[in-house]
Design a protein that fits this description.
Helix content of chain B: under 10%
Radius of gyration of chain A: 22 Å
CATH superfamily of the largest domain in chain B: TonB-dependent receptor, beta-barrel domain
Oligomer: heterodimer
Largest sheet of chain A: 5 strands, antiparallel
Strand order of the largest sheet of chain A: 1-20-19-18-15
Shape of chain A: globular
Distance between the termini of chain B: 30 Å
Order of helices and strands of chain A: HEEEEEEHHEEEEEEEEEEEEEE
Strand content of chain A: 35-45%
Number of strands of chain A: 20
Number of strands of chain B: 48
Helix content of chain A: 10-25%
Strand content of chain B: over 45%
Chain lengths: 356, 754
């Protein structure tokens, strides 16, 4: 009954949307909607279990949410061949020396499981080796590494699909290689050799093609010019002298990545330099925007809390975001919680400069 | 008009007097004084007919006797006992006691059936009396124990609690008792008791025994026992009322009587009827305003805390029977204010309530046999309450986020019966049974049937020619929840080497029970996967202790005492967090580790006229857990401690000046570090050493008024540095809170008694 109602509503919504876009296209093809001047926004992270990734577009005040576990791999659409694992569930990938699934024995997998190599926590000093670079995976390195150009040369990876804040799922073995301008993905649960093979073609409108081992191709990100940043949980790193390279892979809540691959740029400003309320277009000359580190906002907008302090927003700073239309917004986070519950942060922003 | 008819009063007095003679035995009064003519308070006077009374704080006493003459033995701590003979009805005895050569000859009870001279006890007992507690003007036990050798406190500022470590072993291995009965805390019965949740104003004495007391006190008495002896009503007819008020700065923050600073108010009274009844009640309020430290906004580094503590006591004594009931109540709220936020502020309160009911009975059936029964029930509740304050509407509401409101509840029941059967002067048997049950319910505690623990124990004291005392003991335990070691043996010996030289040596097996938390506490969220392990066994230990106790004096005015102790403990099956081998995502508890401690302490005491001084040194070795993985690392890591107390009495103005100092040396360690190629190697780390110093002044104005003032934490210590990184998000980082800076206090105590 309930399902049916939901379905009906969905159909209605689709119809409505269809009608609207159809009308818009027919009657007024070049509606120039001015960017939002200022707004307050509560991010729909889904609450205390923070199930969602929330993609935010400031200029139209729009949020798009998708659950973190809805995908497993992200295939880059830019000129290079790079594949991301799902850092938003804390996934990890381990490169074996084998090139075929048959060679991978259950004992090998068992060893990997019991050794804790693919556990993302404070006991695993080497976790950073099995996750994507948190700042800029395409540029700095991914867990799956260089994508082989042929089936015979590509290595098999053991894929732990992530269990940070999501239910644990079966490990898989995966293999990715190039076939011309396409990706080829082969995968099977670790317990079987029933291999699924799919070809993935690049599409220019999106940064990535997302793929779920259960659902196949899925839509996660909006088109690349339709989002400025995403609020999510995800794998980042923390300095830890005992760990490899002094860095420990660590799963963070309340991470904010700006859309570096879509061309969005961000910058952080301290209140002591220029107060948020006073910041205007003239101040932009002193600002340098960043377009290659998606952690510019990252977790820096909140204090992580400690033995005697709870996590909270940092009120000494705010951010500037230059979107793909060259609009510049100043944005500050107001709260980490809503009614005491994490996973529903709120922010406010205002237009500093109208783009072209 | 009201007029007193003097004749009638006199007649009434005389007739009452005559009646009392005819009905009661003869009565004598007296006064106990020292050689300088100062009264000796609380001397005990026991008659050859078996009666006993305790003098009041002015040294006055009354005692009755039936026969024609009566021998009275008069004893007081720090004085040589003296026997006087009373013959005449209504006689007023003026008894002068000579100071004992060393005042070390105090009375101790821990581990024994009844109080006995510390020199006679087979246990080496450290005791801290009310005199010291009062001189230190302490507001909690930590302020008394923080300059003691071998004791380290660590502050858990997230919860506003503190944990202690004794001779290199964690607080889980230290059993905290109130009058011999185990306490219940946040981790369950007698596990990591927050010792500051006890009213300092109700403490007569703190006795510390290092080394396992598992035969006498069962689980968790592995590193040692801290037995808190509470005040009892006066022993003669009359009452005693005292009130205390103390104002203290917390570092440099202070506001009179409320808010910032530390405010202590306490009142207590005791009364004993001429007959069988005695009663007492007390109430103490502690208001700790917290310390902001490096925080500038709403947050505190040391959380503000309110404590209300009450006690009630009712005793009945008749013939050779003694029965009493007491109630201890604690209500504590710790306020954890969240940071200032533009939308909503989140504040938490940790509310603890503890009700401890104790019932004790004692029967001195004959000279040969005495028995005592103790029963106690403790109800401990700890609630976490989270408040949300909307910054726009100023509306305050309870948070609905998961785990924002939670309750943890423990119930503990203890029944303990012990006997003392003196077969001869040289041989006695002390049998006992001990039943402890414990239940825990809480949001993160998986359902469990509680823990039931049944034990019988027997010890015996054998004296050989007054030179040698041997005390073997055995305990047999059955536990419903975990595998307890079936038989716990111990042997304590004391050899008198000279007139003032005693050697004690002991071996004991000890064990620590896994706590309810360790057995059943589960905590899963995005960044935690912690699970209790219901299959844990008890930790066991073998402990060896020896101590040499010397007392010397040139004459009465110059005294010297020294105690040298050595200890060696091996703990097997130590419970430690580790990764579950069947599922490396989960951290759980196992009996995995071996642990050792060894070390020595040397304590000296000097007394010269109005000067008293203590000098102590300790060297404590802890097992280096990483040494098993790397042969080049030392097996034991040592830290040093040094303490000194100096006390001077300015007799002319009745003022004491006391200085308490302790240096706690750096605590070394190693941790594994992963190099760039993923290779693990050990890295030396340490927690820095620190100095602690308190200076206090006490002046007595007559017998009833005392004024205390002084400076706590004279070295202005706040945090100490640690170079350790392990322990993850909650390891406390490089800063370990130790104090909140130099603080000043002024307190007044007023006493009234009759």
């Amino acid at each position: 009954m309930n399902k049916l109602t939901n379905l009906k509503m969905g159909v209605l919504a689709l119809l409505a949307a269809g009608t609207f876009t159809a009308c818009a296209e027919d009657n007024d093809p070049v509606v120039e909607i001015p960017p939002v001047e200022d707004a307050f926004m509560e991010i729909n992270g889904g609450g205390s279990t923070f199930p969602n990734m929330a993609f935010v577009k400031l200029s139209n005040e729009k949020q798009t949410t998708v659950t973190r576990e809805s995908w497993d791999l992200a295939f880059s659409n830019n000129s290079e061949f790079k594949v991301l694992i799902n850092g938003t569930t804390g996934a990890m990938a381990y490169e074996t020396e084998m090139t075929s699934f048959e060679e991978l024995e259950t004992g090998y997998i068992e060893n990997l499981k019991t050794s804790g190599t693919l556990v993302l926590d404070f006991n695993n000093m080497n976790s950073i080796l099995y996750v994507d670079d948190p700042k800029n995976p395409i540029q700095n390195g991914t867990a799956l590494g260089t994508i082989g150009s042929s089936e015979s040369e590509a290595r098999v990876f053991v894929y732990q699909r992530g269990n940070s804040g999501v239910e644990d799922r079966d490990w898989h073995k995966i293999k990715v290689f190039r076939s011309g301008e396409r990706y080829v993905l082969q995968f099977a649960p670790v317990s079987s050799n029933e291999i699924t093979t799919v070809e993935i073609a690049k599409t220019q409108d999106f940064n990535f093609v997302y793929y779920s081992l259960d659902q196949g191709s899925v839509e996660v990100e909006p088109k690349k010019e339709n989002w400025d940043f995403v609020w999510t949980a995800g794998t980042s790193s923390t300095p830890f002298p005992q760990a490899t390279n002094g860095t420990l892979g660590y799963f963070f809540q309340d991470l904010v990545y700006h859309n570096i691959y879509g061309g969005v740029e961000a910058s952080m400003v301290l209140e002591t330099d220029i107060a948020y309320d006073n910041f205007d277009e003239a101040d932009l000359t002193s600002i340098s925007f960043n377009s290659n580190d998606r952690l510019v906002i990252g977790s820096s907008w909140r204090a992580g809390g400690g033995p005697n302090s709870s996590p909270s927003t940092r009120e000494d700073r705010y951010y500037l975001i230059k979107d793909t239309q060259m609009n510049v917004y100043k944005l500050r986070f107001l709260s980490l919680t809503s009614g005491g519950e994490r996973g529903r942060p709120s922010l406010e922003y205002a237009l500093v400069k109208v783009g072209s | 008009m009201f007029r007193i008819n003097l004749n009638k009063v006199i007649m009434l007095g005389i007739s009452l007097y005559l009646i009392s003679i005819s009905l009661l035995a003869k009565e004598i009064k007296g006064e106990v004084k020292d050689s300088q003519g100062n009264p000796i308070p609380f001397a005990t006077i026991s008659s050859s007919e078996g009666r006993g009374v305790v003098a009041d704080e002015r040294g006055r006493f009354e005692i009755q006797f039936g026969g024609t003459e009566c021998k009275l033995q008069v004893q007081a701590m720090g004085f040589r006992p003296q026997t006087v003979t009373a013959e005449l009805e209504g006689e007023f005895l003026s008894i002068v006691l000579q100071e004992a050569i060393a005042a070390l000859d105090e009375v101790v009870i821990t581990g024994n059936f009844e109080a006995q001279s510390a020199r006679q006890s087979v246990y080496q007992v450290r005791s801290i009396g009310r005199e010291t507690i009062e001189k230190r003007a302490a507001g909690n036990i930590q302020e008394v124990l923080n300059t003691e050798l071998g004791i380290r406190f660590s502050q858990d500022n997230a919860l506003g609690a503190s944990n202690l470590e004794m001779l290199g072993m964690s607080g889980q291995n230290v059993k905290v008792l109130i009058d011999g009965i185990p306490m219940v805390g946040r981790q369950g019965v007698s596990n990591e008791i927050n010792i500051n949740q006890i009213d300092i104003n109700q403490i007569e004495k703190i006795e510390i025994i290092e080394g396992p007391m598992s035969v006498m006190y069962g689980a968790d008495a592995l590193a040692g026992v801290i037995n808190i002896i509470t005040k009892k009503p006066v022993s003669t007819k009359g009452y005693n009322i005292s009130a205390r008020i103390q104002e203290e700065t917390v570092g440099n923050s202070y506001a009179p009587f409320l808010g910032a600073g530390n405010h202590i108010q306490s009142i207590q009274g005791q009364y004993r009827t001429g007959g069988a009844w005695s009663m007492g009640a007390s109430f103490t309020q502690n208001r700790f305003g917290g310390w902001k430290g490096s925080f500038t906004g709403r947050q505190f580094e040391w959380l503000p805390k309110n404590q209300n503590m009450g006690t009630a006591f009712l005793g009945f004594q008749k013939g050779n029977w003694e029965v009493d009931y007491s109630l201890d109540m604690l209500e504590e709220t710790v306020f954890s204010f969240g940071p200032e936020n533009r939308i909503e502020n989140i504040d938490r309160e940790f509310q603890t309530q503890r009700y401890m009911h104790r019932f004790q009975a004692r029967l001195d059936a004959s000279e040969k046999f005495k028995a005592s029964l103790q029963a106690a029930y403790t109800d401990y509740t700890r609630e976490t309450v989270t408040w949300i304050t909307n910054q726009r509407t100023a509306e305050k509401s309870l948070s609905k986020a998961p785990d924002a409101q939670s309750t943890l509840q423990y119930n503990g029941f203890t029944l303990r019966a012990t006997g003392l059967w003196s077969i001869s002067k040289a041989f006695n048997l002390q049998p006992g049974i001990d039943i402890n049950t414990e239940n825990g319910i809480g949001d993160r505690i998986s359902s469990n049937e509680g823990i039931q623990d049944y034990a019988i124990f027997l010890s015996s004291e054998i004296s050989v020619k007054d030179k040698l005392k041997i005390r073997p003991g055995l305990r047999r335990t059955y536990n419903s929840a975990y595998e307890a070691p079936p038989i716990i043996p111990s042997i304590n010996t004391k050899l008198t080497l000279g007139k003032r030289l005693d050697l004690r040596a002991a071996y004991a097996k000890g064990f620590r029970a896994p706590s309810i938390r360790e057995l059943y506490f589960d905590f899963f969220d995005a960044s935690h996967s912690i699970q209790g392990n219901p299959d844990l066994r008890a930790e066991t230990s073998h402990s060896f202790n020896a101590s040499l106790n010397l007392e010397r004096s040139k004459d009465k005015k110059i005294q010297y005492g020294a105690v040298l102790t050595g200890f060696y403990n091996i703990v097997n099956d130590q419970i430690a967090y580790s990764i579950d081998p069947t599922d490396p995502r989960i951290t759980t508890l196992f009996n995995v580790e071996e642990f050792k401690t060894m070390g020595a302490t040397f304590n000296q005491r000097f007394s010269f006229r109005d000067w008293n001084a203590n000098l102590g040194f300790a060297r404590i070795g802890r097992y280096n857990r990483i040494s098993s993985e790397s042969l080049v690392l030392p097996e034991m890591l040592y830290s040093n401690e040094f303490n000194a107390n100096v006390d001077y009495r300015i007799k002319r103005i009745d003022t004491y000046i006391s200085l308490y100092y302790k240096y706690t040396g750096a605590l070394p360690g190693f941790e594994m570090t992963s190099s760039s190629d993923g290779e693990l190697s050990p890295r030396p780390i340490q927690i820095d050493g620190f100095h602690w110093m308190d200076l206090t002044l006490r002046r007595d104005f007559g017998k009833s008024l005392q004024v205390q003032t002084g400076v706590r934490n004279l070295m202005n210590l706040t945090n100490i540095q640690s170079t350790a990184t392990s322990g993850g998000a909650h390891g406390g980082g490089p800063q370990r809170p130790m104090g909140y800076g130099r603080s000043y206090f002024l307190g007044i105590t007023y006493q009234l008694s009759k």
